[in-house]
Structure formats: C-alpha cells, structure tokens
Amino acid sequence: MKVAVVGATGAVGEVMLSILAERKFPADEVVALASERSAGSEVEYGNRKLTVRDLASFDPVGVDIALFSAGGETSKAYAPKFAAAGAIVIDNSSAFRQDPDVPLVVSEVNPEALNDIPKGIVANPNCSTMQLMVAIAPIHRKVGIERLNIATYQSVSGTGKRAMEELGKQTADLLNFNAAEPSVYPVQIAFNVIPHGGDFLDNGYTSEEMKLVWETRKILGDPSIQINATVVRVPVFFGHSEAVAIETREKISAAEVRQLIDQAPGAELVDMREPGGYPTPVTHASGNDAVFVGRIREDISHPRGINMWVVSDNIRKGAALNAVQIAELIANKP
Ligand code: A2P
C-alpha cells in the first residue's frame, strides 16, 4: 500500500506521519508532499526521514490512500486528481465536507458512511465538531438531542504553525516589555481571547461556528438538531475546549450521561467534582488521543438540559488521528 501525506510539513501533516508510524499503518511506501517552498527538506516518519516532494509536479498514479491537510484551495485543486488516479483521498480541509457525495466521518461515530465513497474522497470533520461528536453521539442515540449551545475555547495550533509561532513570539515580546505585533490573527492573541474563527458570514456567525451546525447534522444524520455556537480563540498551544449545553428530547440524568461517556468509544470521563478533577488542554488533552469529558451536570435552567466540558487534542483526534483511523477502516475493508 502506497500512502501520500499532502501538507507533510504542516502542523497536522507532521502528526499524520508520526501517527501512521506509531500505529504501524500497513504502508509499503509513504510519500511526503508539500509546496515547492519546502521540496527537498526532510520530515520525520517514525525513526526514518522522508524527503519532501513538490505536490504540483508529483504523479499520483499508484497512490492508494492520500491524507490531505494543506488547506482548502490545495484540496480543491489536487484531491480530485488523486481520486481520478485511483487513490482514496481523506481530506482534512472544509472543501468537500458539505458535498452530499462525500462522507464526513468520525471513526467511532459513523464509520458506516465509508460504505459508499462515490467520488473517492472522504472528509475529515472540523476539529471542534470532531470532539463534540465523540462526546454527544451516545446521548443523541439514547434520548435524542433537540438543541445544542456551544462555546469553544480553541487553541492556536488549529490555525497552523505560523499561529503557534505568533503566540510564542508575542508572549516573549510582552514579557520583555516589547509590543506584540499581530499578523496571523487580527488582534493580539497572547494574554487575550478572540471571539472569532474563520470568516464572517451574512448571518453574523463566523464560518467556524456554522461548521459546527452543518457538520453535526450531517454526521449524526439528523437535520432537525438546533445548534448555536460561539467560537473563541484562546492563547493555548494544543487542545480545544468546549462548554456544551444540551437540550435532550427525553430526560436523562447526569449519572446516566456519566455512564454513557464512560462506555463511549474514544471518550474518557474525568469528572471528580473537586479542584483539578476535570480535563484541561494541558493536563489531559495535549499529546493524547481521547476526547476528555467532565463537569457533567444537569442544567438548573432547563428540565431536559445537560451541561458538559469537552477537551481534546485538536491536532490528534481533531485532525490527524481521525484521518489515520479512517485510513485504517478503509485499509481493513474486505
Ligand atoms: P509548505 O510548508 O511547503 O508551505 P499549516 O497548516 O501548519 O500552516 O501547514 C500547511 C501545510 O500545507 C504545509 O505543509 C504547507 O507546505 C502545505 N501547503 C500549503 N499550500 C500548499 C500548496 N499550494 N501546495 C502544496 N502544499 C501546500
């Protein structure tokens, strides 16, 4: 099996390569691709080094699985070419997520969507949607979800490597009494929070907020779920957090939700109701695979309301890990 990683020098691409090696994905050959800028440089694949090749001049014939994480425009331009050459493309960008002929898959939640891949392209959900699905799908299956109200606290790695460098540099500059220069984000990110992710849309929401709406409905196969989201960028390097308020169709107790989370594949319950007895990006999510759930409690303002706090490594489960898990499901198909 020949595997290509497109965007191999990026924040997600690097982790895709390390997870492929860590999980011993059955690849005979792995090709690292990026732009012309980084062609010839080296990236790590387990304890080996791969020389990065230029995507634009690469011939995709012979590639079985291509993992794309090089931005929407690159996916739009190259994913159909890889698919036409016979590869199954697993695309981490938002380019194809809304296409009805492209399955949008969270490996533990809707793997059956991989039974039909008409365009040869599978979409990996947005990182915030990903961790939300692992946490709420068991509740939706048990009692039905009527409405979700979500506030996110998203780390800068979700924006890419330059954003991580910006947070580091601004922090150092400010601690040295120098001015912080915003470049990737419109305002200072160090020691600040920014209520903005993606582009502003006509309805006043941002594109990152509307992804949570569209993607949740598609993955759970239920267009009737009402969703309201506020996306916020916080000065954290790895790990997105979400405060999630759920209104269910039938009443469910906090104890029952705790039990569901405890048994849910990909989820880990961290809910001790004491100082530190909850997940945070630094103590739990960063560098780990699970979606961590805590602060589960019944909503005192709603008869069928449940609150929870959901934290996960946005680069691992939120992007690279789920893409590799999809690749494993495809590789293991009879
Ligand atoms: P490069 O390093 O050559 O620019 P991040 O999300 O961390 O910013 O990473 C984006 C990834 O997508 C990088 O690997 C980057 O490669 C790659 N990339 C961006 N634009 C293109 C392009 N036009 N063709 C191929 N790869 C691209």
Automatic annotation (TrEMBL):
What sort of enzyme, by top EC class, is this? oxidoreductase
Matching entries from Gene3D superfamilies are given as: Dihydrodipicolinate Reductase, domain 2 (3.30.360.10), NAD(P)-binding Rossmann-like Domain (3.40.50.720)
Q: Any idea which positions bind NADP(+)?
A: 9-12, 37-38, 157-158, 314
Positions binding phosphate in this chain are 97
The record's listing under Pfam families reads: Semialdhyde_dh, Semialdhyde_dhC
Listed under subunit, the entry gives: Homodimer.
What is the protein name stated in its UniProt record?
Aspartate-semialdehyde dehydrogenase
Q: Which organism is it from?
A: Lysobacter soyae
Q: What is the lineage of its organism?
A: Bacteria, Pseudomonadati, Pseudomonadota, Gammaproteobacteria, Lysobacterales
